[in-house]
Amino acid sequence: MEELSTDDAPASIGPFSQGIRDGDTVYVSGQGPIDPDSGDVVSQDVQEQTERTLENIEAVLGAADLSLDDVVKTTVFVNDMRYYDDVNEIYGDYMSEPYPARSAVEVVKLPVDIKVEIEAIASVE
């Protein structure tokens, strides 16, 4: 197992890695809309939050020389399903076909006051 770490994504806020490479699989811990330079939430707009979240995932993947094109599975957590279409609109701009398998779950609360968090699994070819 190899830890993945980058300054281009927010630091972990607990005892977990930004990402782990295990053989031919990379696991990216849940990322949110935190600006890695300031440590602040980028916006209260869910689409802007989704953009930053996906950029943070991309940064962690970059630490393994991968990109969003290598993602095979994501889990999207939103604090309100009314944001589902807004998240999908941005998600579709960042992900390419064939789209990764995905789950979307509404949660009561996330560790930080944000509207969206996404985790990803990628394949190393």
Give me the secondary-structure category.
alpha+beta
Question: Helix content range of the residues, please?
Answer: 10-25%
Which residues sit in consecutive blocks of at least 5 with pLDDT less than 50? Answer: none
Globally, the shape reads globular
The end-to-end span amounts to 17 Å
Provide the residue-averaged pLDDT: 96
Oligomer: single chain
Strand order of the largest sheet: 1-2-3-6-4-5
Q: Could you tell me the strand content as a percent range? A: 25-35%
Annotation field: number of helices:
2
Radius of gyration: 13 Å
- Strand and helix order: EEEHEHEE
**How many runs of DSSP E, i.e. beta strands?**
6
The profile of the biggest β sheet is: 6 strands, mixed
Explain this structure to me?
22% of the residues lie in helices and 29% in strands. It is of the alpha+beta class and 125 residues long. Strands 1-2-3-6-4-5 form a six-stranded mixed sheet, with helices on one face. Helix 1 (46-62) packs parallel to helix 2 (84-94). The protein is globular, with a radius of gyration of 13 Å. The model has no long low-confidence stretch (mean pLDDT 96).
Q: TL;DR of this structure?
A:
With 125 residues, the protein is α+β, with helices and mostly antiparallel strands.
Q: What key phrases describe this protein's structure?
A:
125 residues, alpha+beta, six-stranded mixed beta sheet, globular
Topology readout:
Elements lengths: L1 E3 L14 E4 L2 E7 L14 H17 L8 E8 L5 H11 L6 E6 L9 E8 L2
Helix pairs in contact: 1-2
